[in-house]
Design the sequence.
């Protein structure tokens, strides 16, 4: 199963749109507390099966993690469950930060 990927430059353009994609961080809570992409929603990969119904099917959704491996797994899982508008941030937050895009500490409450 092929995972659709997006690079950090394309994601920055998408996030600047009037209707940006849903951005989901699948890292652990301690990782999120260190640095996150602004407006990302926390949803650790281990909780994805339990909270899949919270993810919209009819909107673009971009998953990210540290380097793209866990978010790639999230995309594959979502595709297996009928979600086809999901994207993996290639290179993860490491690539995002390396290219100078903004990062912020995330409030890691799971609300």
Sequence:
């Amino acid at each position: 199963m092929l995972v659709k990927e997006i690079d950090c430059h394309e994601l920055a353009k998408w996030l600047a749109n009037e209707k940006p994609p849903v951005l989901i961080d699948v890292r652990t809570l301690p990782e999120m507390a260190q640095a996150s992409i602004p407006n990302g929603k926390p949803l650790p990969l281990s909780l994805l099966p339990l909270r899949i119904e919270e993810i919209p099917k009819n909107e673009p959704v971009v998953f990210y993690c540290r380097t793209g491996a866990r978010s790639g797994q999230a995309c594959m899982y979502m595709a297996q469950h009928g979600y086809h508008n999901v994207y993996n941030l290639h290179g993860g937050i490491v690539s995002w930060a390396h290219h100078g895009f903004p990062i912020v500490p995330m409030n890691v409450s799971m609300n």
